[in-house]
Fold:
Amino acid sequence: MTTLFLLSSTAQATVSGPAEIGVYVGKTDKNAPCELEISRVYREGAIESIFTLRLSAKVNGENFVLAVPPELKEESGEVLNSHKFVGLNPSTTGARALVVKFERDPKSKAYLDEYILLDHQPRSGRAVKSVATGCYGLKLRK
Structure:
């Protein structure tokens, strides 16, 4: 009698892009420390493109899945890189969004630069609450 065992493993391949797994630290406009944690960098689908790149991120204890939305120029037919990752967490009273911008250095390596956390709750039963919190000068904590 022969017994066959099938083992399955999921390996996370190295994905090139502007983000690395780790904690990024920066400062708010009031010079307070702030953090962005990237726990996973992966591609959705088999095509290697900035538009298939995904980040699992956490800010202030809240998780987001981020993707790069295209910048569409309908007049010229162009689909361009928007140079930002965006994630949205809807709620019954509105939504919270995380926007993480990235830049390129002169050597053409992209890096995360800043994030803005938007909180818009127009149906909260109170006056419309909209808050934007920024974190600037992000650096990967080594």
